[in-house]
Amino acid sequence: MNKVILASFLVFASFIVHAQDQKWSIEANYPLVANSNLQNDLNGVVDLGIKYRFANVGPVILGVGFNAAYLKNFDSFTYGGPGFQDQEFDYKAKQFLFQPKIFAEVAIPGLAKLKPQIGVGYAKVIDNVYLKDGVDVQTDDSNTDGGLNLNFGISYDLSDKFFIQVQYDFLNVHRKGENTRDNQTFTYDFNEKIGLIKAGVGFRF
Question: What is the pTM for the complete model shown?
Answer without folding.
Answer: 0.81
